[in-house]
């Protein structure tokens, strides 16, 4: 069996990567919130408790739960001192310290820790009062301003869905949109290259993180079948990235159709999976607010054309496009908040459309979205709810908090 196997969004989940929220989600002030893509300051003990419940539900359903922070440690220990040193250099460069006295001091500080503490520290952020650096060059002295951090925390890293995505037997390691999240995928790159689970296995990389002008995030990437993938054109994913990815997938994989769905660009629906998810062979959830007055939406269906070129067709009917792509005669689209405009908007905001399917027709959702949950049950879905008062403050739900590595075929 391949170490990576994702041919659908709904096949029985076997292995998943999570990140337990840590210090990083309480190491910032209200003034830093919007830049760090948070809407509140979460209460860590409860967030951890809720996350542990989420993990234990997955385990009860037979999923092998791996933790990103632990895998990063294992990859660094397995890789040895050179890998660790190169990783730190890269992390510091991307934290704006490519060289100089601050780079050296931070490297020494982080290197003095055991590997797990070091990984956790990088994620939690390094405050200026933790080190006493004597500046001896102009650049370092000038950068010494009242801002309290040398290295910002990475509070969004518990949304493991976004930094990378496993597709087929390969992976996309994502160049993310905002500075607040860009460094996160260095951990995914490290794990792919040096973790014993992946190292030396020649895993196809559909797209790496070395891109400047286009970006993509896993919340927009949904494998609908072994041939079809849906990708959101969103605040976080550019059409250029989708086109490049389609090119690579058409050349090297079983995928021969990319359905690019254009969604509004705003923080409430930053990714496709905040408004649209697949929950069964022929059932999807959808936030009705993404459709215009005529119930249309911009969709571009990409397929392989002549001479390695890509063809695309513009469509506007989401239901029909999905029925055609998945060869279905009927399709049930379940509206978030049961179509009530107030409930739909409230529940979408708290990830009511962000269902995580762990087997065909079985999903994990946040308990707080009771209107959407009730409707899912009425449509025959087996709904398992998890508590969500603190986790939801980061604007992500069960799908965002999980990065599936292996699913059974459907
Ligand atoms: N797959 C998702 N919908 N992820 C949600 C990510 C939320 C996070 N605060 C961000 O803005 O990036």
From TrEMBL:
<protein>
    <recommendedName>
        <fullName>Arginine deiminase</fullName>
        <ecNumber>3.5.3.6</ecNumber>
    </recommendedName>
</protein>
<dbReference type="GO" id="GO:0019546">
    <property type="term" value="P:L-arginine deiminase pathway"/>
</dbReference>
<keyword id="KW-0056">Arginine metabolism</keyword>
<dbReference type="GO" id="GO:0005737">
    <property type="term" value="C:cytoplasm"/>
</dbReference>
<dbReference type="Pfam" id="PF02274">
    <property type="entry name" value="ADI"/>
</dbReference>
<comment type="pathway">
    <text>Amino-acid degradation; L-arginine degradation via ADI pathway; carbamoyl phosphate from L-arginine: step 1/2.</text>
</comment>
<keyword id="KW-0963">Cytoplasm</keyword>
<comment type="similarity">
    <text>Belongs to the arginine deiminase family.</text>
</comment>
<dbReference type="GO" id="GO:0016990">
    <property type="term" value="F:arginine deiminase activity"/>
</dbReference>
<feature type="active site" description="Amidino-cysteine intermediate">
    <location>
        <position position="400"/>
    </location>
</feature>
<keyword id="KW-0378">Hydrolase</keyword>
<dbReference type="InterPro" id="IPR003876">
    <property type="entry name" value="Arg_deiminase"/>
</dbReference>
């Amino acid at each position: 069996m391949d170490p990576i196997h994702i041919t659908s969004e709904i096949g029985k989940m076997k292995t998943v990567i999570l990140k337990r929220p840590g210090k990083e989600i309480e190491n910032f002030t209200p003034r830093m919130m919007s830049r760090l893509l948070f809407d509140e300051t979460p209460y860590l003990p409860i967030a951890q408790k809720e996350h542990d419940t989420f993990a234990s539900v997955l385990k009860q359903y037979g999923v092998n739960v791996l933790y990103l922070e632990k895998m990063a440690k294992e990859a660094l220990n397995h890789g040895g001192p050179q890998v660790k040193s190169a990783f730190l250099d890269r992390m510091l460069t991307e934290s704006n310290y490519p060289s100089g006295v601050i780079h050296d001091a931070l490297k020494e500080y982080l290197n003095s820790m055991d590997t797990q503490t070091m990984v956790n520290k990088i994620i939690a952020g390094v405050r200026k009062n933790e080190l006493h650096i004597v500046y001896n060059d102009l650049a370092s002295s000038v950068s010494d301003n009242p801002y309290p951090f040398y290295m910002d925390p990475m509070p969004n890293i518990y949304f493991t869905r976004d930094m990378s995505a496993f597709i087929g037997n390969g992976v996309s390691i994502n160049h993310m949109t905002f500075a607040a999240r860009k460094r996160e995928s260095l951990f995914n790159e490290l794990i792919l290259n040096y973790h014993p689970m992946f190292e030396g296995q020649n895993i196809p990389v559909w797209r790496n993180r070395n891109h400047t002008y286009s970006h993509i995030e896993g919340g927009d990437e949904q494998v609908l079948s072994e041939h079809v993938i849906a990708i959101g054109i969103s605040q976080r994913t550019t059409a250029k990235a989708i086109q490049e990815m389609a090119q690579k997938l058409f050349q090297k994989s079983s995928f021969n159709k990319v359905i690019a769905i254009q969604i509004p660009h705003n923080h409430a629906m930053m990714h496709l999976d905040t408004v649209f998810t697949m929950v069964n062979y022929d059932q999807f959830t959808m936030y009705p607010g993404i459709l215009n007055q005529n119930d249309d939406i911009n969709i571009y269906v990409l397929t392989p054309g002549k001479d390695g070129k890509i063809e695309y067709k513009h469509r506007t009917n989401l239901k029909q496009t999905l029925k055609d792509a998945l060869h279905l005669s009927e399709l049930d689209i379940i509206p978030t908040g049961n179509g009530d405009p107030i409930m739909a908007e409230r529940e979408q905001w708290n990830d009511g459309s962000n269902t995580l399917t762990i087997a065909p027709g079985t999903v994990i959702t946040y308990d707080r979205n009771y209107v959407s949950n009730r409707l899912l049950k009425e449509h025959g879905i087996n709904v398992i709810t998890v508590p969500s008062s603190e986790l939801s403050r980061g604007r992500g739900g069960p799908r965002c908090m999980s990065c599936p590595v292996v699913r059974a075929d459907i």
